[in-house]
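Posting for a labmate who doesn't have an account.
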Amino acid sequence: MHSSIQTAFTGLKAQMDALDMLANNLANVNAAGFKEQKSFFTTLNRALTASGATDLEAAINNEVSTGSALNLTEGALVETRRELDLAISGNGFLTVETPGGVRYARNGSLTRDAKSVLCTADGFPVLGEGGKIVLSPGKVDINQDGEILVDGVRVDRLKLASFDGPGALICEGSSLFAPAQSGQAAKPASGVTVRQGFQEQSNVNPVLSTVRMVEILRHFESIQKSISLIFNDLDAKAIERLGR
């Protein structure tokens, strides 16, 4: 019985974690460059009681979370015609300097700070191959290779990074990514295209996410019912023993 209760609570926590993840995805459906997180599940093909009571059949085949990973599928590109907006097509990320260390971003809504340093919308410097990118006054052009020119004069080239797979990164807020393992190094991006005057939208599908949320809520309710039945059974057995 102890293992049955533990199994039930494990399933309950898994569903709560998955709901939190879906809620975060939906909250960032309009965040440029946001990548949704997806939960992975296994199936428990066993009842939550040793008795095998048919009342607990709803608890069979409950999903239990075994981890999560980013969905790195590209979001739709929207033309903005703003010279400091850019989108990256392919496996590439902007390299960003933050107080917590180097981070990576797909949100290409960039700006100049008070010192004319090219920054993210949150004010973190975007790095080029030569370090921080300082833009002098003038017309900014960013070509498909990530080279930055001001009035036709080359300033630097964006330091574009890539990673081997979705498990290599974790989300930090709505627009930054960090290596999943400390000390994990990014690789120089290859085969990517930078598009100036475009923004990549979030890749969250709100309809599918809402449907998934309803499914998880149903599993959540099923597990809650199972836990209630388990404790009712424990109470009944305790009363029976006390009556002897």
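Reply:
Got it, the structure tokens are right above this. DSSP finds two helices and 19 strands in the chain.
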